[in-house]
């Protein structure tokens, strides 16, 4: 895994992965930035959450939104709830493993690099040392993966 400082949304090609909750709220952090820059991602996310309507089904899955042929945004369902309603636990680490296993398949199929923020560690409240280890162990070594730390 490479590491760069900057803004995840400056990437114009590849797969951008960010964590979302299972209730249809993109109100803070990188999720809010994505919502503002790519409203289609938010609209598709809300439709998907409303259609499935079950955090048991959504947690650990991904939603793929293709912005253009070179750019895909992945909503990774890593939290049941959000904000003060959210608690971090083992199920979230499992969800991160499951979502990145799916991203792994996508990246291999699309032959695209993967970019992600400190997923689950900001507003999510998870331990990023543990999260980065899980991501490293889940993504194939031949997939170009980059942690983008917001600056």
Task: Write the SSE topology.
Layout: E1 2-6, E2 14-21, H1 29-37, H2 39-52, H3 55-58, E3 62-68, E4 71-79, H4 90-110, E5 114-116, H5 128-138, E6 145-150
Parallel strand pairs: 1-6, 2-4, 2-5, 5-6
Antiparallel strand pairs: 3-4
Mean pLDDT score: 93
Number of helices: 5
Q: Helix share of residues?
A: 25-40%
How much strand content do the residues show?
Answer: 25-35%
For the sheet with most strands, the description reads: 6 strands, mixed
Q: Please state how the strands of the largest beta sheet are arranged side by side.
A: 1-6-5-2-4-3
Rough shape?
A: globular
Structural class: alpha/beta
| Count of individual beta strands | 6
Query: What is the terminal separation in angstroms?
Result: 18 Å
Order of helices and strands: EEHHHEEHEHE
Tell me the radius of gyration: 14 Å
Summary, kept brief:
This protein is of the alpha/beta class. The chain is globular and about 35 Å long.
What does this protein structure show overall?
The chain is α/β, with parallel strands linked by helices and 151 residues long. A six-stranded mixed beta sheet has the order 1-6-5-2-4-3, sandwiched between helices. Strand 3 (62-68) and strand 4 (71-79) form a beta hairpin. The radius of gyration is 14 Å and the shape is globular. It has five helices and six strands, in the order ββαααββαβαβ. The protein starts with a strand and ends with a strand. The longest helix is centred in the middle third of the chain and has 21 residues, at 90-110.
Characteristics of this structure?
6-stranded mixed beta sheet; 6 strands; single chain; 25% strand; 39% helix; alpha/beta; 5 helices; globular; 151 residues
